[in-house]
Design a protein that fits this description.
The chain is mainly α and 188 residues long. It has one domain. Helices cover 66% and strands 0% of the residues. The chain is built from seven helices and no strands. Helix 2 crosses helix 6 and helix 3 packs antiparallel against helix 4. The longest helix has 38 residues. The two termini are 30 Å apart.
Length: 188
């Protein structure tokens, strides 16, 4: 669903209208469902990657917030970065490395007739990967406290107006907006 599509305009109008009438505690759920619908419209199979990044960094952030041990904190940061960059690297560079290996083997006179998977790059993966990593990095640097609110954190990661085209938002700037009550939109 492109930002300049009729489907996006309809989604935006529906979300805006519903946002005005749902209870404040349900607003984040509405935004999360809308964000997952928006992302799933591109390819629903990649929602699992979004969920993995969200859950890993939420749990790593919580655990990191409980520890004062620099070794534990660094290991947790490495875990977050390893999972996120591993997923990103696989989708961005698998084809390049597979083709390079085939050419190398072919150049050595070895049979290089193995099927290469055509890996499709999930839309927005770089944006949400670096956004979730910024959260754990900020916790590691003690610039922010981890949140206990999984729903608010999930909206921070998947927020549909910026999910596929950025900008990458720092947690200390955007996350508090999903963790506090927001006033109802003015009626006129």
């Amino acid at each position: 669903m492109a930002f300049n599509s009729v489907q996006y305009a309809i989604l935006l109008m529906v979300v805006f209208a519903l946002y005005r009438v749902v209870k404040r505690r349900e607003q984040n759920l509405l935004l999360l469902v809308a964000s997952y619908l928006f992302y799933g419209f591109w390819d629903w199979r990649f929602l699992s990657l979004l969920w993995i990044s969200t859950i890993v960094d939420f749990l790593v952030g919580k655990r990191m917030g409980l520890s004062d041990d620099p070794v534990v904190r660094k290991r947790l940061l490495i875990t977050s970065m390893g999972v996120n960059l591993g997923i990103l690297g696989f989708f961005k560079y698998f084809g390049f490395f597979a083709e390079s290996a085939a050419e190398l083997l072919g150049g050595l006179g070895l049979e290089a007739d193995f099927a290469t998977l055509r890996i499709v790059l999930p839309v927005g993966i770089s944006f949400y990967t670096f956004q979730t990593m910024s959260y754990t990095i900020d916790i590691y640097r003690r610039e922010i406290e981890p949140t206990d609110n999984l729903l608010g954190f999930a909206v921070f990661v998947a927020f549909f107006p910026q999910l596929v085209a950025g900008p990458i938002e720092r947690a200390k700037r955007l996350l508090p907006q999903f963790l506090t009550d927001r006033p109802k939109v003015a009626a006129g």
